[in-house]
Amino acid sequence: MPPPSDEALRAVTKIPGNGIGPLVTNAVEKVMEAMQAPVYFEKYDVTGNMPRVPEEVIESIRKNKMCLKGGLETPMGGGVSSLNMQLQRDLDLYASLVNYFNLRGLQTKHGLQTKHGNVDILVIRENTEGEYSGLEHEIIPRVVESLKESV
Questions:
Q1: Distance, CA of 10 to CA of 32 (rounded, Å)
Q2: What does the alpha-carbon distance between residue 71 and residue 43 come to, in Å, rounded to a whole number?
Q3: What is the pLDDT along the chain (151 residues), one digit of tens a residue?
Q4: Rounded CA separation 1/133 (Å)
Q5: With 0-12 CB in 10 A as exposed, 13-18 as middle and 19+ as buried, what is 74?
Q6: How do 10-15 and 39-43 pair as beta strands?
Q7: CB of 51 closer than 8 Å to CB of 75
Q8: Residue 135's pLDDT is what?
Q9: SS3 letters for the chain?
Q10: Could you tell me the pTM of the whole model?
Q11: Measured between alpha carbons, how far is residue 41 from residues 61, 66, 68, 79, 87 in Å?
Q12: Residue 140: beta bridge partners?
């Protein structure tokens, strides 16, 4: 993929999702428009009550290498797999990376001159084991064991 400085428009797969997902993804899209970011969105209606993420959506994410995804409702019980976990498996997403940082010149709740004014933290969460693997069973009522999948 060419560097962002070339100003070529980039396609982003957009999955608004369920609940507040459409509000959040639409807000992000408006921010991108206001910033005149060189992106356009390919929208796919995927909701948590679908049996699988359609293959055309997976192909779009692979082609674009970027996806703006709102929350997808996760069904409870009944052996139904989460679409979020399907995306993680199909796209080999082994970790979730979140970078928290202060923006220079933006006043924060604690102020720029306090010990909280220069935050730059990268949180890495593994997505394929334990409670994130979807491999679990109920031992006795209300007691669930998460299993580690060996590779």
A1: 12
A2: 15
A3: 445 556 689 999 999 999 999 999 999 999 999 999 999 999 999 988 888 999 999 999 999 999 999 988 877 665 556 888 889 888 988 788 888 887 777 766 655 555 666 778 898 887 766 555 556 667 888 887 766 655 5
A4: 30
A5: middle
A6: parallel
A7: no
A8: 62
A9: CCCHHHCCCEEEEEECCCCCHHHHHHHHHHHHHHHCCCEEEEECCCCCCCCCCCHHHHHHHHHHCCEEECCCCCCCCCCCCCHHHHHHHHCCCCEEEEEEECCCCCCCCCCCCCCCCCCEEEEEEECCCHHHCCCEEEEECCEEEECCCCC
A10: 0.69
A11: 11, 10, 9, 33, 19
A12: 143
**Residue partners of 86: CB distance under 8 A and separation at least 6:** 52, 53
* Cβ(123)–Cβ(100) below 8 Å: yes
Q: How far is CA 103 from the centre of its chain?
A: 22
